Amino acid sequence: MSTSTEVQQDTRFFGHPRGLANLFGVEMWERFSYYGMLGILPIYLYYKVEQGGLGLAQESALGIVGAYGGLVYLSAVIGAWVADRLLGSERTLFYSAVLIMIGHISLALLPGLAGIGVGLVCVAVGSGGLKSNATAIVGTLYAEGDERRDAGFTIFYMGVNLGGFVGPLLTGLAQSEVGFHLGFGLAAIGMALGLGQYTIGRKNLGEKAKEVPNPLPSSQRLLAVGAAVVLVAVVLALVLTGVVHPGNLADVVVWVVAAISVVYFLVILTSSKITGVERSRVLSFIPMFLASAVFFSLYQQQFTVVAAYTDQRLDRDLFGWVMPVSWVSSINPVFIIVFAPILAALWTKLGERQPSTPMKFVLGTVLMGVAFLLFLPMVGSGKNASPLLALVGILFVFTIAELCLSPVGLSLSTKLAPEAFRTQMVALNFLSISLGTAMSGKLAEYYTVDDEGAYFSTVGLVAIGVGVLLFLGIPFIRRLMKGVH
């Protein structure tokens, strides 16, 4: 019996393969470190030096956070390619986890912008590689048609949200009580724990996780390495000569991701390997790609505008104790843990009567716009005067919007994918999130406490407008989807 078959028949982790515990752990600690660091990153960048920060202008600081998030999702595309063509998912995940830990250690120990530069690049590239491959390896633990598969993915995603919940609580507490570098240090310790338990249990993952599905011919490997070296050299040169700097980083990432997305669509649509029906389905994905980018440009402002809002406008006084800014980042994972199963059960119960995928995209985009309009009643209430409960309510709307669109996007990209471009279509879904996340940093540059009414109303109404346009286009999109619901 092969090791992969043994792994798939294993029931030692609550009836699931032992390897699931391993992946649950590494993903939980990775999300702990990622969201823990992201919870304190914006205020570290714009707090004054005497407050322990770097003293950057707020718009540059929030732009960097958005650009960084965009790079994480762009790296997910690169991580998937490395796994598919060079290393296989298991080894790519391992090296990505090592890179994340190096990044968090750099943030904790290196002072100033040097720590930010080295740390964020390592964490972004590592998180992208881990994000795209952990899910793929969970899939290899189950044989075709195994009834436990859906439950296994549910357990795995609970790990994601558990890490996302606890991370900001602990790093925020460390930052507010001791200082930023202890907060970043906690993120590094969390990642070290995740990497340690993963290394011990790598043998539980079987041979299938190590396979390279579409190996790059050895004649092209040197070319791939050369291209990577040239790319790193170009990026370094642009940064060191000041062409790319904190003030324009969000713009650069937006344009780069937009250009890569256009090239990806053109490569797929002009390929001789796809049929007429497949081409039509790829075309139907374009409006959903754009709606997804608009959605994430608002949703990811949890880590840009909402972070600044929490710091400057939210009443965080809890019976005389001031709650750390990053704790607000833990609200969304709680809502996801509670409401994801409810919404999944609702769609299952509705069966054929549930909204079509384009309609779910409409709901997600419109609800996201509504969430921003809900800030308007609190405009002008003064410094740290907005009620905490109101923000909790707004973040609830964020979560319901996310549950309408985010899980559906990944599923849709696989349903509409041409046979020859399965991985690339999943990559396009990640690129829509990357583009939106980088845009969340770009938009945040226009946010100021003094003019927040205009900001919230403009951003909210534009998102609702995009949702309405998508709604009007549903009949046309459904025809292009050629039978995919």
Automatic annotation (TrEMBL):
Q: What is its main location?
A: membrane
What membrane topology term does the record carry? Multi-pass membrane protein
Protein's name according to its UniProt entry: Peptide MFS transporter
State the source organism's domain of life. Answer: Bacteria
The places in or outside the cell where this protein is found are: Cell membrane; Membrane
Describe the family membership recorded for this protein in Swiss-Prot or TrEMBL. Belongs to the major facilitator superfamily. Proton-dependent oligopeptide transporter (POT/PTR) (TC 2.A.17) family.
TM ranges: 32-49, 61-82, 94-125, 155-174, 180-201, 222-240, 252-270, 282-299, 319-347, 359-379, 385-405, 426-448, 454-477
Its taxonomic placement starts with: Bacteria, Bacillati, Actinomycetota, Actinomycetes, Pseudonocardiales
Q: Which InterPro entries match?
A: Dipep/tripep_permease (IPR005279), MFS_dom (IPR020846), MFS_trans_sf (IPR036259), MFS_Transporters (IPR050171), POT_fam (IPR000109), PTR2_symporter_CS (IPR018456)
Annotated keywords: Cell membrane, Membrane, Transmembrane, Transmembrane helix, Transport
Matching Pfam families, A to Z? PTR2
Q: Which residues form the Major facilitator superfamily (MFS) profile domain?
A: 1-478
